[in-house]
Design brief:
Blueprint (H helix, E strand, L loop, with lengths): L2 E2 L9 E9 L5 E3 L1 E2 L13 E5 L2 E10 L6 E5 L11 E6 L1 H20 L4 E6 L3 E7 L7 H13 L4 E7 H6 L17 E7 L3 E4 L14 E10 L2 E8 L6
Helix pairs in contact: 1-2
Length: about 240
């Protein structure tokens, strides 16, 4: 089992850890990590594992056979550490923070458009949500303005936990039809944007919506009779 430090503090950019195993595909398993694994539409973290023999570049991070184990996937051609090796984990913080900003912005989008979510994807520059909306007539500028109003208010973004049974008793908390809430430990992590949004989520988020910065709606696409894809991006041509 990998201790998942990012669950409690998304702002941890580094930690000390020990190599537990290297799997048959060269993936590195640690006893603890700040690296977020691909899941819930959010890409896995990149970064380095610093060892006495030199750094190991990590190209991405994924779950192992179950979600209790996290695998750090090295870039090709890396010399792999052996079990027992002490390492310092360092994520690509600039990239992670952009993903956190975008992820929280998508939560605001789901608050502005209170429809069932059928899919989504989080990127460094752009993100999207697919909505089950029976009627079209969505206005890009109006949606962007509503999201930006919530962001500009600097609302606190926090987390709390409920039991699986409490979630079962309040199924309306689940907005995503395509992604199941993170379960398995007997409790479910909720992300709450003060006064705006509350939903199960295992991803990383900023502490305040003021960190998001202005966004714009890049495109609204029709993906079926009742499916609309809304793409947002950081405004003003902000690039990673």
């Amino acid at each position: 089992m990998t201790e998942q430090l990012f669950r409690d503090d998304s702002y941890l950019a580094s930690c000390e850890a020990t190599v537990v195993a290297v799997n048959d595909r060269g993936g590195i398993v640690l006893d603890r990590t700040v690296f977020y694994p691909t899941g819930g539409g959010q890409p896995g973290d990149r970064g380095t594992l610093e060892t006495a023999a030199g750094p190991v570049d990590i190209a991405t991070t994924v779950y192992g056979e179950d979600k209790s184990e996290i695998v750090h996937v090295p870039a090709e051609g890396q010399a792999l550490p052996t079990p027992g090796t002490k390492v310092t984990c360092r994520i690509d913080w600039e990239r992670r923070h952009r993903l956190m900003r975008m992820h929280t912005a998508l939560h605001l989008l789901s608050a502005v458009l209170p429809y069932p979510v059928t899919g989504g994807q989080i990127g460094e520059d752009e993100g999207r949500l697919d909505f089950d909306i029976p009627d079209a007539g969505l206005d890009k500028d109006e949606i962007a303005a509503a999201v930006n109003r919530l962001a500009d208010e600097g609302r606190t973004v926090g987390m709390r936990f409920i039991t699986d049974a409490e979630l079962d008793a309040d199924p309306g908390l689940v907005k995503t039809m395509s992604v199941k809430p993170p379960r398995g430990t007997g409790r479910v992590r909720l992300i709450e944007v003060d006064g705006a949004d509350l939903q199960p989520c295992g991803g990383t988020h900023v502490r305040s919506t003021a960190e998001i910065g202005p966004i714009e709606v890049a495109k609204i696409e029709k993906k079926g009779r009742q499916n609309r894809r809304v793409r947002i991006r950081f405004a003003g041509g902000e690039a990673a």
